[in-house]
């Protein structure tokens, strides 16, 4: 449901009312980035952190995280009832539930039927109506992600958000006052939930003391690969924005922070809706599944205990590294010395244990790369893993290349989404190409390993013996 947004010109009044301090800086429109923070005068920082006054200081009681949501719940018994029924599963989900209630409160005209107004009720109305993260892209725009590592990730996220929202609708509908505020008359919808998730992901900060939190006003700072400022918590737990030592800025210059330089292009696009190639790690993460015909597939997945993945990254010296802990477990079998046993515990419960060469390695299922080193067929096992990873990356590259979009965005695709997807596709194509090459080199080297040669020779001999035997059996049958 459309709800009135507040013009950014009203932010100084909110800032004043809530005792946030802005020192020689202001929020302004920044071309291509929405709002940002700019200098109202020339600024320069000394060389030591401690000498630099805070450009923005936000009182700690405005910081929004799961602890703050619990505090709000103490003051509002209706919200406490809702949080007890629906929330307390994760910090993120509690903050989103709190923001959903603020959204519903501002969607109705007149005083809220339920819910207590607080600084966030109004601050939320300064935030953008949309963010360019792919969970908020249209179906036509999401087609641009076909073949990239984000294709499956975005679909999975939308399904997870759908399940979260369905649960909120179901559980809160049992509470009359919340049913009336949230659902009667369609005050909020799934689109609001996706938007709040996007706002949370793109605006939450990792505070040094209080961890993952949303901080009003500090969340107006844009990212740069060469940031001029950083945030911190002072001894009073207030969040402060400080110029980096030695930085000089002129009046009107934008002040920026870093959103991190270890995130891949896919992660940047997923979390913030843009890619800055100067500050992204050249890396890629893909999901991996066990062989569909592996009778031990389910046991392997349970024993591994995490979602199996392939990580590929370019190191600072340009070399490509890959790792996939599950690929080793995926490529070994009973005849190699892998065994699953169900142990009965004293309390009657059953436990799945994993044995490798008769040793219990249940706690080391992510460590098979080193566990196989002492196996007489170590080179063969590594060859299997390298082959699986190479095939997987080749399939991914093929999907990426076979779904290349036309040269320009269609009328149903926003230009920014088109450009971001194209950049992601270029980055991922390059890294997949390079990774496939180094896997091929390793495969060729392994194929020359004397143990591999002997093993493959033996396998071929056995197979041709079997073929001769089968042929003679067939001949027997014919006769
Ligand atoms: C924490 S908010 C920053 C304030 C935001 N620009 C606004 O208008 O409210 C993060 C969002 O700002 C935008 N943004 C930040 N840095 C950017 C950059 N370097 N290039 C493009 N967009 C950027 C992205 O939309 C991102 O999701």
Description:
With 479 residues, the protein is of the alpha+beta class. The chain has 2 domains: 8-257, set domain protein methyltransferase, domain 1 (Alpha-Beta Complex), CATH 3.90.1410.10; 282-448, set domain protein methyltransferase, domain 2 (Alpha-Beta Complex), CATH 3.90.1420. 44% of the residues lie in helices and 15% in strands. The protein contains 16 helices and 18 strands. It has helices at residues 11-17, 66-75, 77-86, 91-107, 119-123, 139-142, 150-172, 176-183, 190-203, 265-272, 297-304, 325-330, 368-371, 378-402, 415-448, 450-478; strands at residues 21-22, 25-30, 34-39, 43-44, 56-58, 205-207, 211-213, 222-223, 229-233, 239-243, 248-249, 254-257, 283-287, 309-314, 320-323, 338-344, 350-356, 359-360. Strand 6 (205-207) and strand 7 (211-213) form a beta hairpin. Helix 4 (91-107) crosses helix 9 (190-203) and helix 7 packs across helix 9. The longest helix has 34 residues, at 415-448. The structure holds S-adenosylmethionine (SAM). S-adenosylmethionine binds at residues 32-36, 128, 131-132, 202-203, 219-223, 272-274, 276. This is SET domain-containing protein. Residues 23-260 form the SET domain. GO terms for molecular function: protein-lysine N-methyltransferase activity.
């Amino acid at each position: 449901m459309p709800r009135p947004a507040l013009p950014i010109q009203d932010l100084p009044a909110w800032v004043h009312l809530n005792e946030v301090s802005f020192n020689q800086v202001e929020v302004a429109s920044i071309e291509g980035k929405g709002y940002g923070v700019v200098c109202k005068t020339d600024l320069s920082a000394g060389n030591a952190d401690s000498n630099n006054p805070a450009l923005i200081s936000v009182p700690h009681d405005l910081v929004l995280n799961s602890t703050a949501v619990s505090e709000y719940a103490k003051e509002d018994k209706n919200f406490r009832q809702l949080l007890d029924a629906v929330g307390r599963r994760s910090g993120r989900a509690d903050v989103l539930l709190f923001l959903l209630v603020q959204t519903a409160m501002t969607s109705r005209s007149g005083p809220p039927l339920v819910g207590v107004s607080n600084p966030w009720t109004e601050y939320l109305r300064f935030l953008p109506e949309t963010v360019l993260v792919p969970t908020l892209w249209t179906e036509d725009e999401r087609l641009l992600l076909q073949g990239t590592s984000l294709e499956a990730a975005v679909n999975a996220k939308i399904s997870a958000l759908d399940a979260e929202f369905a649960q909120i609708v179901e559980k809160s509908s049992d509470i009359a006052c919340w049913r009336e505020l949230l659902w009667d008359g369609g005050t909020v919808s799934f689109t609001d939930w996706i938007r709040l998730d996007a706002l949370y992901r793109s605006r939450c900060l990792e505070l040094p003391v209080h961890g993952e939190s949303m901080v009003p006003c500090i969340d107006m700072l844009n990212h740069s690969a060469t940031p001029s400022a950083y945030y911190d918590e002072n001894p009073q737990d207030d969040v402060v924005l400080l110029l980096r030592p030695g930085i000089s800025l002129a009046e009107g210059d934008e002040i920026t922070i870093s959103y991190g330089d270890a995130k891949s292009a896919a992660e940047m696009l997923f979390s913030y809706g843009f890619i800055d190639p100067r500050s992204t790690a050249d890396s890629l993460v893909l999901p991996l599944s066990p062989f569909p015909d592996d009778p031990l597939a389910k046991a392997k997945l349970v024993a591994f205990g995490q979602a199996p993945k392939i990580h590929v990254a370019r190191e600072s010296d340009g070399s490509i590294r890959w790792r996939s802990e599950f690929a080793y477990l995926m490529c070994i079998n009973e005849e190699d010395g892998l065994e699953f046993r169900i142990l009965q515990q004293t309390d009657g419960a059953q436990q799945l244990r994993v044995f490798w060469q008769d040793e219990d390695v249940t706690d080391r299922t992510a460590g098979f790369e080193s566990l196989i080193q002492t196996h007489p067929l170590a080179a063969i096992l590594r060859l299997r893993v390298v082959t699986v990873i190479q095939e997987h990356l080749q399939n991914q590259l093929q999907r990426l290349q076979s779904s290349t979009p036309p040269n320009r965005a269609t009328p149903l695709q926003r230009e920014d989404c088109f450009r971001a997807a194209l950049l992601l596709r270029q980055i991922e194509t390059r890294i997949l190409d390079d990774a496939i090459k180094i896997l091929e080199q390793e495969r060729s080297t392994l194929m020359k390993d004397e143990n591999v040669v002997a093993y493959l020779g033996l396998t071929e001999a056995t197979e041709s013996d079997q073929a001769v035997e089968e042929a003679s059996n067939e001949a027997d049958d014919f006769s």
